[in-house]
């Protein structure tokens, strides 16, 4: 039985950018009382806490912005590493290139790009677009993966500037400092706390090649999940055994 449970947030613990379902909260509370729970997301800390809800503040660790902003249960910041001007400039140029190529009609042009400090996230149709539209837009991430494949040379140029890109959430491309992805930061976090990797498990919906959870594979044991309902079916089984 693992002692330390790492969870992606969007489509793993909650619907995309939405609060944890009421029916799931008792199970999450029971898990937090028995083991270490760590929320890992490309989102900002404030967004993660909004989705998991304030009821659970102080009961779990936060690895925000792909683990480049880490906060312990007491609210103490363990580290926060932000992107520099060169990285931000290269990412901005990459995003503008993709936006011009796709030329999508969107509800709000100002809702596409979020510079979160340690990470920049570009939603192709809008971070706050209707949830059903977001789920239907690119459900298997194939559109976004194809974009990155077609622009392989541009991705390499981005890396030379010190930034990298992965698919994220339901409609986004996530940009962060090169090499400072979820897998690397989870390994750093485990080492910082003196935990044993074999005592950990990571649950995420994007462990597939090119997904934003892929970098965790090989760092600690992993379990793929289809969505938040599948995750909580798994948590229910864990809670029964604790």
TrEMBL record:
<dbReference type="InterPro" id="IPR023214">
    <property type="entry name" value="HAD_sf"/>
</dbReference>
<dbReference type="Pfam" id="PF08282">
    <property type="entry name" value="Hydrolase_3"/>
</dbReference>
<dbReference type="InterPro" id="IPR006379">
    <property type="entry name" value="HAD-SF_hydro_IIB"/>
</dbReference>
<dbReference type="InterPro" id="IPR036412">
    <property type="entry name" value="HAD-like_sf"/>
</dbReference>
<dbReference type="GO" id="GO:0016791">
    <property type="term" value="F:phosphatase activity"/>
</dbReference>
<dbReference type="InterPro" id="IPR043169">
    <property type="entry name" value="PMM_cap"/>
</dbReference>
<protein>
    <recommendedName>
        <fullName>Phosphomannomutase</fullName>
    </recommendedName>
</protein>
